[in-house]
Amino acid sequence: MSSDPEPSRASAIFDSLPYYDNDYERDPTLKDKAEKLIAKELANLKPQQQSQLHPRVPPPITIFANNPLLEAEMARIEAQQPFPQMDTLRYQLPGPASSPGTPEEWEAALKNARAQLEHQRLRQSNLALLQNYGANAWRIHNYLLETTSKNLDKSLEELKELTTEVNRDRKNFQTRLGSQLTSLETRWTELISNVLQIEMANVALEGEIERLTKKEAELAAM
Questions:
Q1: What whole-number distance in Å separates Cα of residue 88 and Cα of residue 85?
Q2: Coiled coil: which residue ranges (predicted)?
Q3: What is the pLDDT of residues 124-160, one digit of tens each?
């Protein structure tokens, strides 16, 4: 793998210390200026650039991507559509449409009745299995859900602690650098003041030298 930095990150320079900088407090007009600059920059961006996320932002998670039925149900809930009515035709036993009915119609009605009978038999078997083993299966399912929930809560707490630690380190680092910057800025101000004082003293000395030179010339002329 190449060790070269990404082009988008190589040209980015971050010089902000949010835990130390208080420019907004010292100059309230800076916030308005910053917002105007941001609005101007956004206005210059193309619509597709405004909608693009940072490359390091993960893609959105697709829920139930491998289950079309649950995915469609989730889309229905998000769209706030009503739940479809239950199809009760499968539970009915309609007779032939005509009277007395053709053999084909009676054959279709007989097949439907057999299918309904088989369906009821399967329901009775499922209910018996549920009565015998459903309680334990439900307890095991609840136990697995509780274990998963505890693991997720633990991971969340660890992530929160890690985030707090990172923010604490950033704050300490920026506060330490801020103190150094303040000291250097104070020293720079003192040096500039000393330089100005020296320049003013030089100007005064030059004026004094010029006055003495003129006086010496006058004395020599006398």
A1: 9
A2: 145-222
A3: 999 999 999 999 999 999 999 999 999 999 999 999 9
Tokens of 140: 């095991």
Closest residue by Cα to residue 137 from 148, 125, 147, 129: 129
Report CA-CA distances (Å) from 81 to 60, 67, 73, 151.
Answer: 23, 20, 10, 34
List of residues 6+ apart from 42 with CB closer than 8 A: 50
Phi-psi region of 193 (alpha: psi -120 to 50; beta: other; left: phi over 0): alpha
The C-alpha R_g of the chain, in whole angstroms, comes to: 42
Residue carrying structure tokens 């299966």: 137
Per-residue pLDDT band for 44 (boundaries 50, 70, 90) equals confident
Q: Is the distance from CB of 27 to CB of 34 less than 8 angstroms?
A: no
Half-sphere CA count of 117, side-chain side, radius 13 A: 6
Q: What is the mean pLDDT of residues 161-190?
A: 92
Distances (CA, A) of 184 to 57, 69, 187, 192: 37, 65, 5, 12
DSSP state of 94: -
The span from the CA of 20 to the CA of 173, in Å, is: 10
Q: What is the DSSP string of 176-217?
A: HHHHHHHHHHHHHHHHHHHHHHHHHHHHHHHHHHHHHHHHHH
Q: Is 90 exceeded by the pLDDT of residue 45?
A: no
What kind and span of H or E run contains 52? none
DSSP summary character for residue 6: P
pTM above 0.85, yes or no: no
